[in-house]
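Dataset card, provenance and construction

Sequences and ligand SMILES were collected as paired inputs. For each pair, a complete structure of the chain with the small molecule in place was predicted and serialized as structure tokens. The example below shows a pair involving zinc ion. Curators did not alter the output after generation; any descriptive sentences attached to a record were derived from the structure itself.
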Amino acid sequence: MKLRRRMMMTAAAALLIAIGALLPITHKNSGTAWSSGTSERAAGAARPHTEEPAARASASALASGKAEAAQPVVYLTFDDGPSKWTPQVLDILAKERVKATFFVLGQEAERREQTVKRIVREGHALGNHTYNHRYDALYRDFEGFWRQARQTDAILERIAGKPVSLLRAPGGTYGNFDAHYFELLEQAGYRIADWNVDSGDSKRRNVPASEIVKTVKAGKLSREVTVLLHDGTGHGESVKALPAIIAYYKAKGYRFAVLDGEAKLVTFRIGPDKWQRTWTEAALARAEQLVGQRSGAWRPLRDWLRDKGTVAWDALRKEAVVRVGGETLRLVPGEDKHVRVYGALHTGGGSLAFRLVGERIFVAAA
Ligand SMILES: [Zn+2]
């Protein structure tokens, strides 16, 4: 049953809206072999600001949609920091007027709080890369991963002053995450990101900058490129390679963006499990209990509405009708996986995100 749900999730469009806004949202299909079949799983978790007037939100969504269509985008990502190299990375990014995403380790963030603050202050995105990166502790069983993700959540929220939902699995998800890992972490509200261009800067110690640049240039120039780099201890060569990498993507006409709610996240398909985990019903039930406690967790809309209102799926009109008090919200999936949201709910200033999965709707309240 769990696996069936998982398959439904991968097969369906996922999207998010701000209450009060009327937003046509395009679900972006995966264009790469890396993310084939899994992009829907990663789509979503955008939480547009509710303060933004509906008309402006709609206009800006359309405008950014157009810009995206016109220009390819590259997401530079740096893992395993912060370290002594990170300020140099930040200096280069500032000089080049480029934004990037940093997947930091909880234990390194604790040691270099000022660097983490600088990452946020300078407009880069922050992601969770677990606490200590030890594969056996993370992948032997889910609860080990969960503990480190939550521990790092707390550290990053304290330092950055806001919750961080972006998450990258140490070593990538391939062979490390099984379907339950994906499903549980997404249910918890995490947005999982792998990459589609590996700079090769961690395939052995001290890979020279020239080789890193060469490897990046050999990568596929898809419309959305997510480049894996490292700014952890021992990665001085990555710093040296960075200006040439930036110059390369600039010359190819790319714009640089951060992995925020607007970004399409690539995730690997589920590979053969390296870890020989066994999931008992009891372990799964316990894990579901755990993930439901994280604020930002996705809950089935029916559960969430239990004391508030109702939702009905109109199979004929193919729309979900949500009623809360005297207010009605209609979620209408259209062609090419466009979905329109009609109506507004006034939920007391908070923002809600919806995810439509087949005929099931999930909601996350922020
Ligand atoms: Zn890593």
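Derived descriptions for this record:
The chain has 13 helices and 15 strands.
Residues 141 and 164 are 23 Å apart (CA to CA).
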